[in-house]
Amino acid sequence: MTPPTDRICLVIPYYEAGEDLVDSLASVRLEPTDLIIVVDDGSRRCPAKDLVPEAVGDTPLRLVELARNSGITAALRAGISNAPPDFALIARLDCGDTCHPERFTKQRDFLLGHRDIALVGSWVDFVSPDGSFLYRLEQPARPSAVRRRMRVNCAITHPAAMFRREAYDRVGGYPTRFPAAEDFALFSLMLQHGEAANIPQALVRCRTGDGGISDRRRRTQLASRCRILLERFDWHPLAVYGLLRAVGQMATPRSWSTRAHRIRVRLTGGRPQAGPAGPPLRRNPPG
Hints:
The protein is globular, with a radius of gyration of 18 Å. It has 287 residues and is α/β, with parallel strands linked by helices. A hairpin with a 5-residue loop joins strand 7 and strand 8 (133-137). 34% of the residues lie in helices and 21% in strands.
């Protein structure tokens, strides 16, 4: 088998997303030796084959078409299983979300410089369907802070994630038992064997309020989150808080959460532009 390299395979699940896929692909800046895989999860009205080019810039694109709509977890598993074995890094993006031009360069360099980190994300700017800035989600940067946040909720925003293929394969890929929370389930498993971090800069813009999974399947997602939290529950105060918080959120609409974020942004002045680099994590010594 070809030995692992630092090549990135970007996996984008697709289902009847139309021009949203085109917008996402237009923001991608990868190297000619990298690869983009788009997984069409059984689209009929607007199949991805009518939209995808053979390459994005100099980066080749491969289309994987599923016979029927099977959901995002199945689409992601299919996409990663189609990545050649010499692609050591897997990146994620959803249709309609866009990337900072330096996103993949920064995340690749970060993982190459921090061999103990299996998973890296970034801060994310959330925007409305018309592109208006709503709020910035500043996920914790350092591994210890990521572990603390994972007792409450997913500390890596899924469309901003990049992880080592080896870590993914070691835990068996995306679990299928937690609908609408496959990211939280996968990342929780990865943290049993490695560390995770976030680059403290907004490298991805995510659209919200347009019927995505977090909008359409909110209660399912929260129920899955509760099950994940219960499976690793240890009576730590944060674990108790996280479980109670998830239960409480099941009784409130998502619009309340978005409104709360908007109020916080107004109170703090908001930061719709890319954030500062922040203090760097200590890099591993060479060799």
